[in-house]
Design brief:
The protein is of the alpha/beta class and 312 residues long. It folds into two domains: 221 residues, P-loop containing nucleotide triphosphate hydrolases (Rossmann fold, 3-Layer(aba) Sandwich), CATH 3.40.50.300; 67 residues, Alpha-Beta Plaits (2-Layer Sandwich), CATH 3.30.70. It has ten helices and 14 strands. The strands form three sheets. Strands 6-7-8-3-9-10 form a six-stranded mixed beta sheet, sandwiched between helices. Strands 2-1-4-5 form a four-stranded antiparallel beta sheet. It is elongated, with a radius of gyration of 24 Å. The relative contact order is 0.13. The site of magnesium ion has 4 residues, from helix 1. The site of magnesium ion (MG) has 4 residues, from helix 1.
Length: 312
């Protein structure tokens, strides 16, 4: 797939000198869905604002389908749709005019068919004549997406699209992003919900303190870093790990009620059989044995934690 968005050595220092982005480089392929995960203040919104021309970069370059965002701003910007983190809509305007107006801003000729299609897709068609102020928060989020799509962009930025949105609407949004991909739209989204990245992204980027720590194919990332855990639940609590089991890297948790063994899913030998045999030898009574796959959440938390440790 060709690269649609190319970010090279991007830096952003705000007026107070704070460096919100430090040498960020990232290539995004046409048609992919990439999720940027990062704690509060990591620089996600700054990155999006810089790409969208709302914030001036301090150094580096960004191009969209070959158009430089500084030298060729209008061409670059017209290829981008932005759903901002904060809801900013005209309260007394109605839904359809809000979306039409946004299309006009990009100099696109009025096309009622396009606007209708977008509104229908976002389940807003029935609400087209409603004033924005009469909509629920979730509906306003949909209007923001409709607005961002009004000029038929090729790259869509969603800055925390599902913050404070209920489960159903969140799933709807995922479906919308998936449908857009079928039309060839590239989506970059930021999120705090790791299950969101797990559900819809092709690639996941982790950003912390203005730096990209990692960008990787989601499936590969989960396979590479994913570990499995075996929880052995006991009928009696233990005060310490029995001597016979000390060769294993076990942790005792849950106030002594659970022994946890962590193993590599790709390893040829997991060590489970041996462990269970030794466990039987200790005479411990087991209530249950449960395995868990570490999630993207575990991976993310450990990455960000490591980064914080390195910095301190
Ligand atoms: N206009 C500004 N002037 C100075 N500092 C700013 C400005 N805007 C953002 N920052 C700082 O830059 C850093 C990155 O902010 P940014 O909004 O990009 O983070 P974020 O990853 O989007 O966080 P969140 O998850 O909370 O939305 C923060 O430390 C923030 O305080
Ligand atoms: Mg933000």
């Amino acid at each position: 797939m060709p690269t649609i968005l190319s970010i090279k050595n991007l830096r952003k220092a705000y007026e107070d000198g704070f460096e919100a982005l430090k040498d960020v480089s990232l290539d995004i392929e046409e048609g992919e869905i990439i999720a940027l995960l990062g704690p509060n203040g990591a620089g996600k919104t700054t990155l999006i604002s810089t790409v969208c021309g709302i914030t001036m970069p301090t150094a580096g370059s960004v191009s969209v389908a070959g158009h430089d965002i500084l030298q060729d701003y209008r061409a670059a910007r017209s290829l981008i749709g932005l759903v901002p983190q904060e809801i900013a809509l005209e309260p007394f305007e109605n839904v359809i005019n809000t979306v039409r107006f946004s299309r006009g801003l990009f100099g696109k000729p009025r096309k009622d068919g396009v606007v209708e299609d977008i509104l229908r897709r976002l389940s807003l068609w029935d609400k087209r004549d409603n004033e924005i102020r009469a909509l629920s928060g979730g509906m306003k989020r949909r209007v923001l997406i409709a607005k961002a799509l009004a000029h038929e962009p090729r790259v869509l930025f969603l800055d925390e699209p599902t913050a404070g949105v209920d489960v159903e609407l969140r799933k709807d949004m995922w479906e919308i992003v998936d449908q857009l991909r079928a039309d060839g739209v590239t989506t970059v989204l930021t999120t705090h919900y790791i299950e969101e990245a797990e559900a819809i992204a092709d690639r996941v980027g982790v950003i912390s303190k203005g730096e990209i720590l990692l960008v990787e194919d989601k499936v590969k990332l989960m396979a590479r870093m994913g570990r499995k855990q075996l929880d052995v639940q006991l009928t009696q609590p233990l005060s310490e790990i029995p001597k016979a089991l000390q060769a294993y890297d076990l942790t005792l948790g849950d106030d002594g009620w659970t022994l946890t063994y962590s193993y590599d899913t790709k390893g040829e030998r997991t060590g489970i059989t041996k462990l269970l045999t030794e466990l039987a030898g200790t005479g411990l009574q087991l209530r249950d044995v449960v395995t868990r796959q570490s999630s993207l959440e575990d991976i993310f938390v450990s990455l960000v934690r490591e980064d914080e440790k390195e910095a301190s």
